[in-house]
Amino acid sequence: MEQSQLCPRFEKALEILSKRWTAKIVYQLQSGPQRFVWIENSLPNLSGKVLSERLKELEAEGIIQRDVYPETPVRIEYKLTDKGKAFAPLFKEISSWAEQWVDFPSAP
Amino acid sequence: MEQSQLCPRFEKALEILSKRWTAKIVYQLQSGPQRFVWIENSLPNLSGKVLSERLKELEAEGIIQRDVYPETPVRIEYKLTDKGKAFAPLFKEISSWAEQWVDFPSAP
DNA sequence: TAGTCTAAGTTACATAAAGTAAGCGAAAAA
DNA sequence: TTTTTCGCTTACTTTATGTAACTTAGACTA
């Protein structure tokens, strides 16, 4: 039986997006450079441990950049690279899909 | 400290897409109705156990439909609903992001 | 000079999610 | 009666994530 061949670039992109928290982190950074604790507080249930892992992975992928400001206490900011900013149209698509198809009939 | 408020619909969409395997399964079904084993074989490393879970979740979300053909042995096909088909432009965006930004410098 | 404070993590431990492989039920074919 | 096929489940193992306490570094405070 044949396996459907997925384009490796596409597959890579899908893997980045499918990994828990990555999409949310990247989305969160669309609004500008942010510090560790800020991102952590922005995404409920995301633990510092996993955030730390994901930021390293995203940096390794060239999607975000880590900037160190040697103040006291040290300030570290994470921001999207061009590669990361290029996700913007994708988020727009997700948004418009959501607008059209996701309903919230009941309020909590 | 304020938390950035994510639109609940958008968040829901992001959660669907971020869950391991869901995006790949939905993408796989874009090519037409498929049976359990076919999907399983199309996605390397996806276990039947998780596929079973995901298909139920996606059906509950109204993204796919499960059709039973009482042949022998029974044939069951999964296919996208309109809601599921509406992911198409999103996959196009992922694809074009991947084309532009993902490189594969070395061949295996 | 010892003790304190803060940001940005890290570590050890506990829980949840996913992977593996064997098994099940139905119906028909051998 | 045994075998085969499909579409799953179940029991068990491994991996991923969550929690909470701890670490490091430099400047500030007592």
Largest interface: A-B, 42 and 42 residues
Q: Tell me the number of helical segments of chain A per DSSP (H or I, 4 or more residues long).
A: 6
CATH homology superfamily of the domain at 19-88 in chain A: Winged helix-like DNA-binding domain superfamily/Winged helix DNA-binding domain
Can you give the mean pLDDT of chain A? 92
What is the terminal separation of chain A in angstroms? Answer: 47 Å
Output the radius of gyration of chain A: 16 Å
Residue windows where pLDDT falls under 50 for at least 5 positions of chain A: none
Under CATH at level 1, the class of the domain at 19-88 in chain A stands as Mainly Alpha
Structural class of chain A: alpha+beta
CATH fold assignment of the domain at 19-88 in chain A: Arc Repressor Mutant, subunit A
Count the strands of chain A? 3
Share in helix of chain A: 40-55%
> How does the major sheet of chain A shape up?
3 strands, antiparallel
| Strand content bin of chain A | 5-15%
**Biggest sheet strand line-up of chain A:** 1-3-2
SSE order of chain A? HHEHHEEHH
Regarding quaternary structure, what we see is: homodimer
Described by the principal axes of the CA atoms, the overall outline of chain A is: globular
The CATH architecture assignment of the domain at 19-88 in chain A turns out to be: Orthogonal Bundle
